[in-house]
């Protein structure tokens, strides 16, 4: 299959729409509960490698009743060890492209967020869940192991012990538990996941681009660095951000009382 044909074949696997400064990217295999096959992973790679100029954020969601039920196991059975290694590394490259995107990525979660679907959600920067969302890692019961970066990203959200319990026992977390334990940062009412994600996306799209860059690119490295190296990196990033013309304009607006002070939510 040629490149043009392959791209055309993958095009229907994502539903991509532009809404002002926000790009919405919908996983579009609802009949398969948005199970992740190679075509869908490569479609995500193409999408995040070619984000339109001028967008300020991305909302990642699932078409239908589920975010994603994880790896399409019908593809896994055909891999030998070498192919399995390359397959896992392909997922790593694509999910890294999402995590280190030039703009913030917000995941709107509902229904199944399991296996590779949970790994994909972990690559986003903010996660919003509806009450229908549930989280699981069934790999342990399938005789396999996570391969999409989950063993790196998920423990940083919920801890190694909780992830180990999920894989050993098949434990499933409901949406409310997920918000409590760090799977997500927001929990909405039924049907409110995508609207809340859009609200947040529009808000973060209005930030100074250099600040968003620092949060996405520098903050994870600082958090994992030797403390003294992290502090130096923080000082350098703060200096660069403060010297930006947009930062100077915003600080002046605040000092001139043109920007509202921070207050607790009503």
In brief, what are we looking at here?
Helices cover about 50% and strands about 15% of the residues. It has helices at about 5-10, 40-50, 75, 80-100, 115-125, 140, 150-160, 160-170, 175-180, 195-205, 210-225, 225-240, 245-255, and strands at about 15-20, 20-25, 55-60, 105-110, 110-115, 125-130, 135, 175, 185. β2 (about 20-25), α2 (about 40-50) and β3 form a beta-alpha-beta unit.
**Poorly predicted segments:** 1-9
CATH homologous superfamily label of the largest domain: 2-enoyl-CoA Hydratase, Chain A, domain 1
What is the distance, rounded to the nearest whole angstrom, between the alpha carbons of the first and last residues?
A: 56 Å
Strand percentage, roughly? 5-15%
Indicate the CATH class of the largest domain: Alpha Beta
Give a count of the beta strands, DSSP E runs of length 2 or more.
9
Shape: globular
| Rg for CA atoms | 19 Å
Strand order of the largest sheet: 1-2-3-4-6-9
Rounded mean pLDDT is 88
Q: How helix-rich are the residues, as a percent range?
A: 40-55%
- Count of helical regions: 13
Structural class assignment:
alpha/beta
H-E order: HEEHEHHEEHEEHHHEHEHHHH
Please give the structural blueprint.
Elements: H1 3-11, E1 14-19, E2 22-27, H2 38-49, E3 57-62, H3 73-76, H4 81-99, E4 105-109, E5 112-114, H5 116-123, E6 126-129, E7 134-136, H6 139-142, H7 150-158, H8 160-169, E8 173-174, H9 175-181, E9 186-187, H10 193-205, H11 209-224, H12 227-242, H13 245-255
Parallel strand pairs: 2-3, 3-4, 4-6, 5-7, 6-9
Antiparallel strand pairs: 1-2, 7-8
């Amino acid at each position: 299959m040629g490149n043009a044909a392959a791209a055309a074949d993958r095009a229907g696997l994502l539903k991509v729409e532009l809404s002002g400064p926000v790009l919405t990217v919908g996983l579009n295999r609802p009949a398969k509960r948005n199970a992740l096959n190679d075509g869908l992973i490569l479609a995500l790679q193409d999408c995040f490698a070619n984000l339109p100029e001028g967008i300020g954020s991305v909302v990642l969601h699932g078409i239908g009743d589920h975010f994603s039920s994880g790896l399409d196991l019908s593809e896994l059975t055909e891999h030998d060890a070498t192919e399995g290694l390359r397959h896992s590394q392909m997922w790593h490259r694509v999910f890294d492209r999402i995590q280190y995107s030039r703009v913030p990525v917000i995941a709107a979660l509902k229904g199944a967020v399991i296996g590779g679907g949970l790994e994909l959600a972990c690559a986003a920067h903010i996660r919003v869940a509806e009450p229908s969302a549930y989280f699981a890692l069934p790999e342990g019961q399938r005789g396999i192991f996570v391969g999409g970066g989950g063993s790196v990203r998920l423990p940083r959200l919920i801890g190694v012990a909780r992830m180990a319990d999920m894989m050993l026992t098949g434990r499933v977390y409901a949406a409310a538990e997920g918000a409590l334990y760090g799977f997500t940062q927001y929990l909405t009412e039924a049907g409110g996941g995508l609207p809340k994600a859009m609200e947040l996306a529009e808000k973060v799209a209005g930030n100074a681009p250099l600040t968003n860059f620092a949060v996405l690119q520098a903050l994870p490295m600082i958090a994992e660095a030797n403390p003294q190296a992290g502090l130096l990196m923080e000082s350098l990033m703060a200096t660069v951000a403060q010297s930006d013309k947009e930062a100077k304009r915003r600080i002046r607006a605040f000092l001139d009382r043109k920007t509202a002070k921070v207050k607790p939510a009503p």
